Write a sequence for this structure.
């Protein structure tokens, strides 16, 4: 298939592009390139792509495409809370417009990168499945719910949206993010000797490796239409349903000498959800996650050491919010997060 991969220069997109190519797909990227230079290790070989803002996408960008994988977004809660209106413009309105253009162009499958954060304050120890009530607690998560609702309205005999509700990602990507929990805790442990948890450690936070996300999307791309049409899937695996305190313990085992410190100073995080991944297994029996949290912690520790992660890069270069704040202060992006010409 010819696949348009939005967000191909992000943390997940940089890992997903080669996985799609290895499966025989022709990948065309689309990204504003906000974090294109936030690289740890060798510079990745990106597929050919459009350097364009999602809000400026036209019919030309989706012409001749068989499927769209839509990752581009302001990708986490702090970004969403920084500018809620921008989050809705980019994550919600521009995403729905992209889907409409894709449908009009005859694109048949549209895999949307949603998130398990849509369950938000699910709380408790029960597993939440895809039909659980959605309780987003941030503009970011709310934007994902709105896109799912609107894409559902576009589904028809020729257009198959699929809602890929990813658990929180972890693992090495050349375009690293240090603002997601495992990547953050491992980096902090290496740089300071401490696995520092500011919440009380109790929230459930299911995790999934970036490569397993890429494999799940690749599998969903070629799954039979009736198995995935207009459906939501939790992406991850029960073995990685862990609490933040358990994640911290795994990190301490992976980074020798590091000590866990749970301060609880940020109180209880309202986002807590323990997730049921059985629908994905039933729909795509060939797929299962391969990476455990422990393996990911070891992989990250190796990569951070090998590529000499510095405190400066950890805090600024690989933290999405810090990068955008710096670009805004330097005037390279305007207050709508568009590049200044
Ligand atoms: N990483 C996770 O833990 C995780 C978990 C669940 C869901 N997701 C979703 O997966 C997707 C990818 O996440 P990621 O971790 O790779 O994030 P990321 O921030 O690394 O990548 C997002 C990409 O989108 C691009 N982008 C942002 N605004 C844009 C705009 N206006 N126009 C064009 N491009 C724009 C950025 O330049 C970046 O390359 C996002 O939709 C995110 O919400 C991620």
């Amino acid at each position: 298939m010819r696949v348009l991969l939005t967000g191909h220069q992000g943390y997940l997109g940089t890992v997903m592009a080669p996985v799609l190519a290895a499966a025989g797909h022709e990948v065309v990227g689309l990204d504003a390139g906000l974090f294109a230079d936030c690289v740890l290790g060798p510079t990745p070989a990106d597929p050919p792509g459009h350097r364009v803002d999602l809000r400026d996408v036209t019919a030309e960008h989706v012409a001749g495409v068989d499927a769209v994988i839509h990752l581009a977004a302001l990708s986490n809660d702090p970004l969403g809370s920084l500018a809620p209106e921008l989050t809705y413009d980019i994550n919600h309105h521009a995403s729905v417009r992209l889907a409409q253009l894709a449908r009009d162009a005859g694109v048949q499958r549209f895999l949307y990168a949603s998130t398990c954060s849509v369950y938000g304050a699910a709380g408790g120890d029960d597993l939440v499945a895809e039909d659980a009530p959605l309780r987003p607690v941030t503009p970011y998560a709310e934007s994902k719910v709105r896109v799912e609702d609107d894409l559902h309205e576009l589904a028809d005999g020729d257009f198959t949206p699929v809602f890929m509700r990813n658990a929180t990602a972890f693992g090495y990507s050349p375009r690293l993010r240090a603002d997601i929990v495992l990547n953050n805790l491992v980096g902090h442990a290496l740089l300071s000797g401490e696995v520092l948890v500011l919440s009380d450690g109790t929230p459930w936070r299911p995790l999934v490796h970036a490569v397993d996300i890429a494999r799940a999307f690749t599998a969903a791309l070629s799954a039979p239409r009736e198995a995935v049409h207009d459906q939501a899937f939790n992406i991850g695996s029960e073995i990685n349903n862990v609490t933040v305190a358990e994640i911290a313990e795994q990190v301490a085992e992976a980074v020798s000498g590091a000590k866990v410190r749970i301060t609880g100073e940020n109180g209880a995080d309202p986002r807590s959800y323990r997730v049921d991944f059985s629908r994905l297994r039933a729909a795509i029996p060939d797929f299962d996650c391969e990476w455990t949290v422990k393996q990911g912690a070891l992989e990250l520790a190796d990569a951070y050491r090998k590529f000499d992660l510095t405190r400066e890069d950890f805090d600024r270069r690989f933290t999405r919010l810090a990068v955008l704040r710096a670009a805004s202060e330097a005037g390279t992006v305007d207050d709508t997060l568009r590049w200044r010409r």
In short: Residues 7, 9-13, 31-35, 53-55, 71-75, 90, 113, 115, 166, 168-169, 177, 180, 320 surround nicotinamide-adenine-dinucleotide (CB under 6 Å). The chain has a mean pLDDT of 95.
